[in-house]
Amino acid sequence: MAQTEQGGAHGSPSAHRLAESMVERICRLACVAALVVMLIIVAVDILTRSLFNFSFEISDELGGYLLVVIAFVSLPVCQTSQSFHRVELVQSRLSPFWRAVSHVIFDLLSLTFCALLLWQLARFELSSFRFGDRAPTYLATPLWIPQAMMALGAAALCFSMVRTLVADVARLRKARNTVEGRR
Amino acid sequence: MSPDVQIVVVFAFFLVLLACGMSVPFAIAVPAMFYLLLQGGLQSLNSLGLVSWGSMNSFVLTCVPLFMLMAEILRVSGLSSRIYGGLARLVARLPGGLLQTNIAGCAIFASVSGSSIATAASIGGVALPQLIRRNYDRRLAAGSLAAGGTLGILLPPSFGMIVYGTFTETSVPKLFMAGVVPGLIMTAAFMIYIAAHALAVPAVAPRESGPGSLKGLLVALADVLPFGLLIAGTLGGIYAGLVTTTEGATIGCCLAIALGAAFGDLTLHKVLDAMYSTIRFAGNILFIIFTAYVFSYAISFAGVGEKVTAFVVGLHLSRLEFFLALFILYTVLGCLIESLGMIVITVPLIFPVLPSYGIDPLLFGVVLVLFVELGQISPPIGINLFVIQSIWDGKLGEVILGTIPFHLAMFVVLALVILWPDLALWLPYHLSR
């Protein structure tokens, strides 16, 4: 039977959580900080608007930036904690060896995507910095600052993907040795 | 390779990666990137930075992590146990006893959580041990919780509607309103089915006693009160047009923290736990949305959307035939693709066709969410089936069999909404500001 689940929390055959490294820990704390700041900014805006009929008019802009932080910087955290949804239609029927093979293939494909994404986000960031793009808002935020979070998140995701790949290759070697040992 | 073959190959690639067990966002992203490279080589990736920034720098989507945080705070503070206890005393006298409480509990929890997984897990975790201890029919108990959990994405707030609204630039508060009546009808349909089943086969549910006295009734109402306050505080402001969806979610988080501390056992440590879980859940959902934007960009880069629209319009289907075609499409997809993936992959292709059939975007949003609900309890990959199976000791087959009657109830509600669109549209067009 197939399985769609979050985080491999139910003993998924493909769930192999990695220990959290310094990079993922920093990312997790940065995301929590972004979440708290988001809450405070929006709450303060509601309060000042309701009580004093006054708005800072920055919550929409900053809320968007903080969402970018959460969306991209949380990726390495999700990757190492196996939080991405997956379908276990085929995985649950595979032998440990073929499961390990499939994981290495998935890791390589995912890493290629992450590397291309990082390349493009870094280009975008540099171009934004070079041209001095600013938000057309009251704050006139230099856009390279929030946009840097996308590139940083993608870089951290690449790091976590490499860690996942290394762990899955080690698992593949172990599975191959087990198969050869049986012969 | 001709453009028609290319899109078929890309969709096949996506389905193969998904079925083989690749993480859903990567299973969307890799074929999308492959498709872009097929279309225009490395040059076609040049807009990826702008697409990434444009898709995620969105104030509308800001409500996703905030609604998740609210649901997580309720879960860790133990308030979901309290509401179940209160509801058990209020509605357990109905035929079906605690099975009715499952549906009512799911409907109320759904009104403060946007996710069917959170709804099924929160109510199921509290309910299943009690149901099994009191000798309720296991199949019906599991089925009612799996199906009741799907109310999480129909009754507002709903992540499915937020994502649909973001992709199609449809008003999220109006979508929320459009989901209210169908959600209540679905809740009633589930409860009527349970009552009818319990009256026909009394052995499936023992008779329960109610609150017994006025004091008992007041205590039970007091247990339900925190959720009532939360729903009023969160959705009331959104519906009244006083606050945006994100602001409503922020008010909900603040209220959940206050109520969790006052009525539950919320501590600072638990709030941090809720935040860590929120980061993981939100990261997953936001990444799926992001990769879907990349997929959507690849489709528009190739000009496939226009071709699909021209093809579907060229079929000259009637409105009802169009819905029937959607029903078949989504029933098949629901068995293959995870719920959010189903929305984000199909909406960019189907949405442009809607004006040709005079279908209101709000109505389509509700119908789409109903299809997604069906997918969530459809084997082999219905997520709620696994959520319930993971919190009890029964077999998955029992959960699947238990949901079959609820499938039928969902078909009826779906047909009602398609035949009488006012069930969904009256509220947003008459009450929203």
Q: Which regions of chain A contain 5 or more consecutive residues with pLDDT less than 50?
A: 1-13
What is the arithmetic mean of pLDDT of chain B? 86
H/I helix tally of chain B:
20
How many strands appear in the DSSP assignment of chain B?
A: 0
Sketch the major β-sheet of chain A.
Answer: 2 strands, antiparallel
Considering DSSP H and I runs of 4 or more, what fraction of the residues of chain B is helical?
over 70%
Task: Tell me the major beta sheet of chain B.
Answer: none
Order of helices and strands of chain A: EHHHEHH
Largest interface: A-B, 63 and 63 residues
| End-to-end distance of chain A | 30 Å
In terms of DSSP E residues, the strand content of chain A is: under 5%
Roughly what fraction of the amino acids of chain B lie in strands? under 5%
The secondary-structure class of chain B comes to: mainly alpha
User: Residue ranges of chain B: pLDDT <50 for 5 or more in a row?
Assistant: none
Numbering strands along the chain, what is their spatial order in the largest sheet of chain A? 1-2
Shape of chain B: globular
Order of H and E elements of chain B: HHHHHHHHHHHHHHHHHHHH
Kindly state the percentage of residues in helix of chain A.
55-70%
> How large is the radius of gyration of chain B?
22 Å
Class based on secondary structure composition and strand pairing of chain A: mainly alpha
Cα radius of gyration of chain A in angstroms: 21 Å
